Amino acid sequence: MSTRRAKTRRNSNPLHNQETRRLPFIEHLYELRKRLVYIAASVITFSALAYSVNRGVITALLQPAGTQKFIYTSPIGGVDFLFRVCLYVGIALSIPVIVYQFLRYIEPLFRHTSMHFIAVGSVVSGILALLGIAFGYFIGLPTTLHFLLHQFVTKQIQPLLTIQAYMAFVAMYILGSALLFQVPLILLFINRIRPLDPRKLLSLKVERWIILTAFIGGGLMNPNPNLVDQVVIVGPLILAYQVGVGLIWLGQRRLRQPKRLTELLRYDHDRQAIRQVRFDTAQAQPGQQSATLKATPTVIAPSTTTKPIAPTQSPLRSAITDNRPLKYFNDVRPIRAFGQRLPRSAS
Questions:
Q1: 71 pairs with which residues across the strands?
Q2: What phi and psi, each to the nearest 5 degrees, are found at residue 250?
Q3: How confident is the model at residue 329 (pLDDT cuts 50, 70, 90)?
Q4: Has residue 66 got a pLDDT over 90?
């Protein structure tokens, strides 16, 4: 009964259930479905808002192309173009919501996480996304379109683009720029799941791969072979990585223990190791002694003198060690601890 009550009391604790109970796989699917519903609702809402101002949005998206003309090749091409514009704008504006729902879904993986961290991370993600969109729209996209639309032009070759193809390219470019600017936040999230070492992240071996990856990404974003244009694209990507490593270093520095506490913890760890060695040695000694006693038999010499009575021994045990006759124990009277004699029993 006591065991059943203990189990009932333990199961009634919500904190215990939250920490120890493992959810089945179907529960994770339900959680994922709920998060996807929230994301879909956010995209639909922002897409509806973009539709209300579609003229201004389309004018802004066509501006990097300059005087380039576009066509559509089907009767519903214009409707399809308008739908894509609204959808892309809805996805771009829903980036903070997407990040928030994603963090809530993987929240059990974080160490010492809180709602404040998730909320701040979502807001910072939105700010970084806006910076990436501005960088892609004002710096990367004009130079890339100028190179692609004027590099392979002759008297017989003229660019004739559909508006759907142009809008897909612009959307992927801007969303890719927003994603690349999320690198500092991605590093912070990884550091929350598994601590990273800033010294290794800034080592020459890692930095070479980061620079190589940045130049490959910059070449995809801007295929112009001009070195200045490449540096303009690659520079912010490398800077975003350095900022992320710096934020990891600052966060670990705040959690770093004082020097005195570190020395005390190291001293305590050394003392524990010494005590463990002594304990293992003490456990191994009785076995060695018993093996020695079995190998070498001992001879006990007969004692010629009587042993003194130990203060903790009873009179009966002391008399037996003195080899006194049994009649002595029938005649002796019990004695109290204070030396007072007790009356003899009727038997």
A1: 162
A2: -65, -40
A3: very low
A4: no
